[in-house]
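We examine the record.

___
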Amino acid sequence: MNLTLLQDATAEQEPLQVSDIETFLVVDSGSVTADLQLMITAARLEAENENGRELAQKQWKLVLDHFPRNHCWDSFGLTPVQFNERPYNFYFADGSIQLLDPVISVDAFTYKKSDGTVVTLAEDTDYLVDVNKHPGELCPTYGNQWPTDTLWPASPIEITFTAGMTPSQVPGAIKNGMKLLISEWYENRLPFSGVRFIAEVPFSVRSAFQYNKLWKF
C-alpha cells in the first residue's frame, strides 16, 4: 500500500524547556537560547527514534491510496522539517489501521469518491478509535467494514490525527538521556571528542531513550 505521512505542525511543547538545560549546563547567558532550543528538538527526535513513541504532541495527516483489504506492514522514512529522516512503521488490516503512539484523537477522516465527492466519516458511527492499544487503532464500527466505493485514483483517503505526550508524561529516564545528549553537543560542538569518536549516540543515552520502548513484531 502506498501512503504518505505528513506532520501538519511542529510540536506544541518539547519535553524539556530551555531553562531546564540552562540549569543543567550552568549557562548564565541568554545568548545561546536559540541554539539550546534546536538541541532540545534534535534530542527529542533522537529519543523518539529509539523509543518508538511520540514524545511531544503533534498533528499528523496519513494519506492512503485505498482502504486496507488484507493484513500488511508498511515501513518508510519520514523527513521532518527540522532534522534527520526517521523510520515509521504502520500496520493495516481489513479491520484496523494502526496510527502513532500514543494516539490522542482522530480529528478528521475523509475519502474522495471517483466522481470527486468527499465523504466525511463520523467517529462512533462509521469508525472507532481505540486509544487503549499501543499504538492506537482505527477500526470500523461493529458489523461494518471499510467503504467499498470506487475511489479517486490518487491519495483519496486522509486521516488527520493527534499523537504524542505532554512534557509531564515523558518518563524521567528519557528526559535525563536528552540532557546527557544535549550536554555532549553543547560541550564539544563536534561529533567527536579528542581522539574518541562519538558520532553514534552513547550507550548510556540510548538505554535511557529505550525506557518503556514500544516494540513491534
